[in-house]
């Protein structure tokens, strides 16, 4: 069995696509549709990888990254921002907040899993 992945994403279509791709590649997927729920699941289940959308209704992904990194999450957890924010400096801001990598939306279904695995395996 491959790693457990937590997806924190408020868009149902994006959640469906990410879950589908990951489950078809043997991953166990946990889902949260807002930041507060995502933080709770992360601390209860300790997933190996967390995929975070930056634009969420209750708190942004940067804030979630900071909270995850400073509130007892295992150090070896990989956090990846998956977002349509593609302005100059956004990737750097995500990394500063605690993300290990950054994947832009719209994602490419053909390459998404390998992109994610590359970030996870090189951290």
TrEMBL record:
Record InterPro entries: Bact_response_regulator, CheY-like_superfamily, Sig_transdc_resp-reg_receiver
Q: Which UniProt keywords apply?
A: Phosphoprotein
**Does the record's keyword annotation contain Phosphoprotein?**
yes
> Might you name a Gene Ontology BP term for this protein?
phosphorelay signal transduction system
> Where is the PTM 4-aspartylphosphate found along the chain?
53
- Reading the lineage from the top rank, the first entry is Bacteria
Domain Response regulatory: from-to ranges: 4-120
Q: What is this protein called?
A: CheY chemotaxis protein or a CheY-like REC (Receiver) domain
């Amino acid at each position: 069995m491959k790693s457990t992945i937590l997806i924190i994403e408020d868009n149902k279509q994006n959640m469906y696509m990410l879950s589908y791709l990951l489950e078809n590649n043997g991953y166990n997927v946990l889902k949260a549709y807002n930041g507060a729920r995502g933080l709770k699941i992360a601390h209860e289940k300790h997933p190996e990888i967390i995929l975070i959308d930056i634009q969420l209704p209750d708190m942004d992904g940067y804030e979630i990254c900071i909270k995850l990194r400073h509130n007892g999450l295992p150090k070896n957890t990989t956090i990846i921002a998956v977002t349509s924010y593609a302005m100059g400096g956004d990737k750097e801001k995500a990394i500063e907040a605690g993300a290990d990598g950054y994947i832009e939306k719209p994602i490419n279904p053909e390459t998404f899993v390998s992109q994610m695995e590359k970030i996870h395996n090189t951290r």
